[in-house]
From TrEMBL:
SMART domains: HNHc. Residues 70-119 form the HNH nuclease domain. Transmembrane segments: none annotated. The keyword Nucleotide-binding does not apply. This is 5-methylcytosine-specific restriction endonuclease McrA. It comes from Salinibacterium xinjiangense.
């Protein structure tokens, strides 16, 4: 079971195990907002509700320079598994400016691509192929990208994640 941790201002911070969440609650650093009462955690001193959402009692400052690291899975997720050239189902990624010509592994240069388009394009730019990009590659933004595990959100989390989207 996973637990959503909210900052004191109700913005999502992280997803932790329910054990870590209980430790934060027991040490009075957090308060349970939503819990799974059907599956309590039993201890020598009694039973605790298994936390689903907790909120920290003090505000934690988040560095403004937080960015999402580039990954193959992230590029496919950002582009909705759609090829940036033909719109088909993407199963690989492509460098818009090929690496052999100085293209970097960055959010602005990587795009989801189907195998057919990737093989046709090869070591050329889309302009040389006469192709247009269906979307401009950009870095992803929002709490859903900064917090790992939000893509498999529990129903209890919806009301806390919706304002962040």
């Amino acid at each position: 079971m996973r637990t959503l941790v909210l900052n004191a201002g109700y913005e999502p911070l992280a997803i932790v195990s329910f054990k870590r969440a209980l430790v934060l609650v027991m040490n009075q650093k957090a308060t349970i907002i939503a819990a799974d009462a059907d599956h309590p955690v039993w201890a020598a001193a009694g039973a605790w509700d298994r936390p689903s959402v907790i909120i920290l009692r003090t505000y934690v400052r988040i560095p403004s320079g937080r960015h999402v690291p580039v990954s193959r899975r992230g590029v496919l997720r950002r582009d909705n598994n759609r090829c940036g050239y033909c719109g088909g189902t993407a199963n690989t990624i492509d460098h818009v400016m090929p690496r052999s010509r100085g293209g970097k592994d960055s959010w602005e240069n990587l795009m989801a691509c189907c195998l057919r388009c990737n093989n046709l394009k090869g070591d050329r730019t889309p302009a040389e192929m006469g192709w247009n990009l269906r979307m401009t590659p950009r870095p992803p933004h929002g709490h859903g990208w900064l917090i790992r595990g939000v893509e498999r959100a529990l129903p209890d989390w919806e009301e806390y994640l919706a304002p962040a989207a």
